[in-house]
C-alpha cells in the first residue's frame, strides 16, 4: 500500500520533470519531514530505557511512600496505646479481680468514661480493646465484656475455638508489637449479622504490678494498609507483602493465590541492604522485585511483579512508535507532494503574470524586481494617504458621533488605519456653538459665523494639537476628547483648563458668545453617540439658565448638593440621647444613614461634613451633660481618623458611640459598674474552657454593647478583657502541667484553645517559656 503510493508520486514527478519547481519543493519538504522522524526514532530508543527505569522507580516511590505513611501510622498507634496504658483509671482497674461485684461495678463505668474515642481523629485504627487478665474483662469507651462474652458476642478469630483463642489472648499477644494478619469475625456488627474482617493487631502490655496483668490491643483493618499499596499491579502472579524485623510476614496482597513463604524465601536469598531492585525467577517465571527496608522499625516492604506487567507500558510504547513511524513516512510523503504542488503552482503563476521585457532565469530575482516596484508604488500611495489624513479623521468623527459603525472592532480597525490610538482611554464629546444673539450678531450672516468657526479651529489646533474636530452645522463644531482611563477623574478639570486657555487666545466679545456643551464620559468607542446626544441635550436643558460658558450634562449620576440633617432632627437626636432613649436614637440614626448613604449620592466632601457634624453633637453633649473625661477620651480615640474607614465601619463607630452615651446617661453608677464587672469575671471563671468565649459572646450574654462592656471592664479591672481571659487560661494550664500527666494537646482543649499550636504560642507569650520546659522544671 505504502510502496504503491510512493511509486505513484515519483511517477508524477518524472512525467512532469519540466516543472522543476515542483521537484525542488518536494525534495525540500520531504527532507524536512524525514529528518525529525530519524531523530525521533533515536529518542525512542532512549525513551524505552527511561520508561523501563520509571516503572521500577515508580514502584520504589510507592513503597517508600507507603513505608513512610505506615511508619507514621504505627507510631500514632503506639502513641494511642501509650495514652491508654498510662490512663490512671485503667491502671487502677487492672488490679480488680471481681469488677462485677458491688461496689467494684462502678469502676467499670468510671474506667469506660475516662477512655477516649479515637475514631473521630484516627481512621487508621479501626478500634481498640483493653484486656484485663485478672478480671478477664475486655473494655473500651463503648463496650465492656468478659472474655467469654467478648468471644461469643463481639469478636473472635476465624476458625479458632475459644480455648485456643484464650491462650492466644493471654499468652502471645501480651508480648506486645504487631502481629501477623488474622481473620476475625464480628458478631451483630451490621443488621445482616456476622461480618468477616482480616485484621492486623498492635498490642502493648499494661503497666504490670505482677506478671501478665493485661494489654491494649489496637485493631487495624487490612484494607487500610492495602489502600496504600493498591497502585502496585499484582496481576499474573505478583504479590506485595510487609515483613517485620523478625522475618514474619505481617500482611500480604496478591492478585491470585500464591505460596507467600516460597516468594519470601526467594526474595530474601537475592536481597540485602535497605533498598534494591532486581529480577528473579520464581517457579520459572521472570519477576521484577522492588525491596525497601526501613531504618527505624526494620520492616521490609516488598513488591514482586511479573516482568511482563512491569514492562507493559514500555512494550506498548514500542508498538506505538513503530506504527507512528510507518504512518509518518506515508503521510510525510503525501504531505510533501501536496505542499510542493501547492507552493510551486503560485510561484509559476506569479512568474507567468510578471510583465517584464527581460526575464531572468532565476525566478526569485524576477519576483524581487517586481516587489521592489510594488514597494515604490506603496510609498507613493502612503504619501498620498498622509496628505488625506485630516480629511479622513474628520469623516471618521462624523461617522462616529452619528453611530454609523457596526461594532467596536470596526471602529478600532479604521482608527488604527488613520493612526489614532484609543487604547486604555475614556471619551467625552464637546460641542462648540456661537450664540450670535449675545453680541447682537445677525444670525443670517453666515460669512461672519464661518469666520468665527475657522478662528476657533485654529485656536483649538494650538490648545489641543491632536484633537478630532468636525463641523456639526453652520454654527457648531464637535470635538472628541480622548483622555487616559487611569486619570478619568481629571477629565472635567482638563476641559475647564481648555476653556480657560481658549478665553486667553480668543477676543473677549467672541469668547462671550461661545457656548461649550459637554456630554457624559464613556468607556467604549461605540458609546460615543450617546455622549454626543447628551451634549446636545445639555444645550437644551442648561443654555437658558447658564452661569458660565461650559454646560455640563448632569444625567442621573449627579451628586446631591447637600446632605440631609434638618435642625428639628438634630434637636430630637440630642434630646433622646439626654433621655437615654436608645431605641429612639437608633431610629434617628438609621433614618439619617438611609437618607444620606442609600437614597442620596453624597460627594466626598459632603460625606465628611455629615460625619463630622454627628461627631460634633457628641462634643456638645459632653459640654451639656458633663460625663467623665475618661469616657470622652475613649469615644474620641475610637472616632479618630474616622474618614479613613469604610462607610460601614463609620456607621458602626458613630452608632456605638451614641449607644454608649445612652447607656452612661441611663444611670450606670460606679457601684453598678463594679457589680456588672464582678458578674462578668464570674462568668469568665466558669466558662474560660469554652474555646468560643469572646468579647462578642460575653456582650451577648449580658445584653450589652461590645465597646461599652470593654470600656467598663478595663476601667474596673485595670486590664483588657482579652488579656484577662488569656492569663486565666494560662494559670489553669500551669496547674494542670504541675499536677497531672495529661498530654499538652489535652490541656490545650481543657483550657479553651482550638489547637495545640495556639496554646503553645499563648503560653510562651505569657510565661516566657514553652509548656514542655515549664512541666520539666516543675516535675
UniProtKB/TrEMBL annotation:
Keywords: DNA-binding, Membrane, Transcription, Transcription regulation, Transmembrane, Transmembrane helix
Coiled-coil residue windows: none
Domain spans labelled HTH araC/xylS-type: 678-777
KW Transferase (keyword) present: no
Tagged with keyword Membrane: yes
InterPro entries referenced in this protein's UniProt entry, alphabetically: CdaR_GGDEF (IPR041522), Homeodomain-like_sf (IPR009057), HTH_AraC (IPR018060), HTH_AraC-typ_CS (IPR018062)
Leader peptide range in chain numbering: none
Transmembrane segments: 21-44, 319-340
A molecular function (GO) term: sequence-specific DNA binding
Listed name of the protein: Transcriptional regulator, AraC family
Species whose genome carries this gene: Ruminiclostridium cellulolyticum (strain ATCC 35319 / DSM 5812 / JCM 6584 / H10)
